[in-house]
């Protein structure tokens, strides 16, 4: 019999990326990203202080805010690529 398991970390990761992309349009979505960032998304220790870094982005304005959001998305993409490379290559 096949056993199917579902990984909730993937849903949390997708929601985090969606909230970060939406926070470029409206900064209120950054609060949702902070709430999701509190959960440990990967077994990676890099995501533990990620919600604190997102909380610091609230104080930025203008282009610095957009650069901070893009860097947060790049950080997530780097960790995804690193995990894929580590486990599948």
Structure description:
This protein has one domain (8-88). It is built from four helices and no strands. It has helices at residues 8-25, 29-37, 50-56, 63-88. The model has no long low-confidence stretch (mean pLDDT 83).
Annotate the secondary structure layout.
Elements: H1 8-25, H2 29-37, H3 50-56, H4 63-88
Shape: globular
Low-confidence stretches: none
The overall number of domains is 1
| Proportion of strand residues | under 5%
- The helix count comes to 4
The average pLDDT value, as a whole number, equals 83
Q: Radius of gyration, rounded?
A: 14 Å
Find the structural class using helix and strand composition. Answer: mainly alpha
What is the oligomeric state here? single chain
Secondary structure tally: strands: 0
For the termini, the CA-CA separation is 29 Å
Biggest sheet statistics: none
One letter per element, helices H and strands E, the order comes to: HHHH
Helicity, as a percent range: 55-70%
Transmembrane segments: 12-42, 48-81
Keywords: Membrane, Transmembrane, Transmembrane helix
């Amino acid at each position: 019999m096949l056993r199917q398991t579902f990984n909730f970390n993937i849903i949390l990761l997708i929601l985090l990326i969606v909230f970060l992309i939406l926070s470029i349009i409206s900064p209120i979505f950054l609060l949702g990203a902070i709430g999701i960032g509190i959960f440990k998304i990967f077994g990676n220790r890099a995501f533990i202080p990620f919600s604190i870094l997102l909380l610091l982005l609230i104080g930025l304005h203008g282009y610095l805010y957009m650069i901070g959001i893009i860097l947060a998305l790049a950080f997530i993409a780097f960790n995804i690529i690193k995990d894929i490379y580590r486990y599948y290559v």
